[in-house]
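User: structure tokens for this one?
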Amino acid sequence: MPVFIWEGRTRQGTIKKGVMEAANDAAVMTQLRAQMILPLKVKPRPKDVMEYVPWLQPGPKIRELVVFTRQFATMIDAGLPLVQCLEILGEQQDNRKFQDALRQIKADVEQGSTFADALQKHPAIFDELYVNLVRAGEIGGILDTILNRLAIHLEKADSLRRKVKGAMVYPVTVLVVAIGVLVLLLVKVIPVFEKMFADFGGVLPGPTQTVVNLSHFMQAYIGYFLVGLFVAGVAFTQARARSPKFRYWTDAGFLKAPVFGALLRKVAVARFSRTLGTMISSGVPILDALDIVAKTAGNKVIEKGLGNVRASISEGQTMADPLESIGVFPGMVVQMINVGEQTGALDQMLGKIADFYDEEVDAAVDGLTALLEPLMMVFLGGSIGSILIAMYLPIFKIAENIK
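Assistant:
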């Protein structure tokens, strides 16, 4: 259905603008008059270039989703009808993809679909966790409470994600700069020294000859090297996406990595605890909650382990023993979950675990940054310094010959 941009004047005399989906401009004017708005301008919305390639349209950021969820909860709590909430919030969105999704969700709800079922048609924006919590809120009649919990969960999950990304930015930046400087030295600077040494004649020292040979190699194969690096990156990404076994092996390797493994395990515990605690406190059955948590874990090792936990619970067993067998969750966490199960306060215990491991992630990120900073400096200084020393050795020899 076409989308129109409209501008009108309210009964109070203020100018209001918006976007509306309708069969034609006459239908837009009719709807505006029904809302006590005098239409001043109605025209079709111009198509964005991205609309011709939908897969390139960026989705909403986490922060936009959080703001939408909080505003939605406030409107529901104030007693506004669901359709009206979707219409108001849809018009406020700057992200075209998000706006179109909300417009379609509003249309589905008007046709009799539940809010959760309408959200489920847009998995790129609303994941299984979001949809199932909304479904639980609709069934229990506490949709505003569930949406507030969802907003808190999304904020904390986004904070956790940004902490991990922040820990990766510094070492990756330094590594890229170091490699770029090394390539520049080998491709542009070393040939100048080589020509100078050739003019003086004589045999080059071993380290110098090694650097010169490496320079020849880089000049001849730099293009192949970059293409090979790109192909290897694409092949690795595709293999992880298409081969469950390869994804499982690489995920297991990431968790056992000497520097980043401990951080990834703490992030996994925090994410698991926060997500499962939010779902249980919202009334989602534990078997359904574990199924969703496993799918959103982001790690095949943890996903498989949580599948075993779910199978054990369905057979009447506790969560603690199969959880410990995954090898990711520390004994303290397993014991706290066991106590939570026995006391009937599992959601509260999971919340405490998540809060504790959020702080642990903070400490791990700080420690990782403190550890990587000197290592990167040693790598950068050592590699560039070795090349410079190798280039100065013949100069020292030439000076001795002149003397």
